[in-house]
Amino acid sequence: MILSDRDILARLADGDLAIEPLEDVDLQVQPASVDVRLGRRFLEFERANVPCIHPNREAEVEDYVTETVVDDGDEFILHPGDFVLGTTKERVEVPPDLVAQVEGRSSLGRLAVVVHATAGFIDPGFEGRVTLELSNLGKVPVALTPEMRISQLVFTELSSRADRPYGEERGSKYQDQDGPQASRIRGDREFGGEQ
């Protein structure tokens, strides 16, 4: 069951769902979702003269990523064909009986901006800022301003609480992330990691 605005507000008031800072409830809480805003930090992938990135090689992904922090009053220009990692301003804490999905706002979709490639699912137990996979599928650059409403979170109630929620006990790779995080796939079991 997808939570309505009434359900979302009740869970926020009870403190079992957290979205902070939620500065304008009337603007951000929609009929069945919560709009979240764009943070100031971005990870940009540099063009490199390598045949490919190997997920199982140490530090290879990080070698081709640079962080950009946008100053107050400035904007981030997302060029056609670009793919960058951004982050939400809000920190989210999803309880063990809910999942969340990251969805794009239709107003940005109509400008050809996509907010997630494949990672639009937030597990029960996740805590942290949400990494956004931003792409410009259009033909002209689009200016993104920190604190603009960039995406929406849709919350769905599970049939029962998760027994093994996302988090430290599971060794979850992205728990408590405070900004955009590059891939940590090298930590997966199939690449010699523990997960």
Tell me what you see in this structure.
The chain has a single domain, classed as Deoxyuridine triphosphatase (dUTPase) (Deoxyuridine 5'-Triphosphate Nucleotidohydrolase, Chain A, Distorted Sandwich). The strands form three sheets. Strands 1, 3, 4, 6, 8 and 10 form a six-stranded antiparallel sheet that branches. The protein contains three helices and twelve strands. It has helices at 5-14, 25-28, 106-109; strands at residues 18-20, 34-37, 41-45, 65-69, 76-78, 83-93, 98-104, 113-114, 121-122, 127-136, 142-144, 149-157. With 195 residues, it is mainly beta. The radius of gyration is 17 Å and the shape is globular. The chain is 9% helix and 33% strand. The mean pLDDT is 89. It starts with a helix and ends in a 38-residue tail after the last strand.
Structural features:
195 residues, mainly beta, Deoxyuridine 5'-Triphosphate Nucleotidohydrolase, Chain A, 6-stranded antiparallel beta sheet, 4-stranded antiparallel beta sheet, 3 helices, 12 strands
Q: How would the blueprint of this fold be written?
A:
Layout: H1 5-14, E1 18-20, H2 25-28, E2 34-37, E3 41-45, E4 65-69, E5 76-78, E6 83-93, E7 98-104, H3 106-109, E8 113-114, E9 121-122, E10 127-136, E11 142-144, E12 149-157
Antiparallel strand pairs: 1-6, 2-12, 3-4, 3-6, 5-11, 6-10, 7-9, 7-12, 8-10
Main sheet attributes: strand count, strand direction, barrel closure = 6 strands, antiparallel
What CATH architecture label applies? Answer: Distorted Sandwich
CATH superfamily: Deoxyuridine triphosphatase (dUTPase)
Q: Strand fraction band?
A: 25-35%
Rg to the nearest angstrom?
17 Å
Low-confidence stretches: none
- Count of all domains: 1
Q: Given the C-alpha coordinates, what overall shape results?
A: globular
CATH topology: Deoxyuridine 5'-Triphosphate Nucleotidohydrolase, Chain A
How far is the N terminus from the C terminus? 30 Å
